[in-house]
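Project standup — Tuesday

K.O.: blocked on the structure for the chain from last sprint. Re-posting the sequence here as requested.
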Amino acid sequence: EKPFVPDTMSNATTDKQILSSQQWHWLEEALQRPAAIRLVVSSFQALNGAANFECWGQLPHERTRLHALLKEHSDSSLVMILSGDRHVGAFYEFDGIHEVTSSSWTHTVPYGAFDDCTNAEECDEKDERRLGDFVRENHYGMMEVDWQRRTATFSLRRTEMSPHYKYTKLRSSAGLVLQTRSYDIPS
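H.V.: unblocked you, prediction finished:
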């Protein structure tokens, strides 16, 4: 019997959608409200330009619509997309819009999980929108805002490890910053 393989190539048609018309309407209205920081949460990545699996890029017409909508507000607000579902962490930037992917709390994909690669140069997908290497340790995302300095800092931090985790030196460094980026908040 053949294994089930999802059809991701035909998703480029315009009859498929991520958001319903009601959801688009709600998002458009929400973005009209004044805000210094706009956090847009997506269960999967929006800015990744290289992924060939579940992400906004699989439905280009939806991604284009989201980009245009968020771009309208990127001069007057810090626009940050918060995403996950990759089992690696990363920061992205495209056309004034930012994204931080935080995934996974419990089981990040290590080097060599799908082939015999051993480092970021070999393993990480090539994506000009990604800022730095993937975070390949269990982690979570954190946002800190300094309103006096008008900056927002997003970081990916190591989670606490199980006592059974084989790399014992990592167990005691929960909260350690693995990657961080700071952004100016427009006035």
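K.O.: great, moving the ticket to review. The helical segments are 21-32, 60-71, 120-123, 168-171. Residues 35 and 54 are 30 Å apart (CA to CA).
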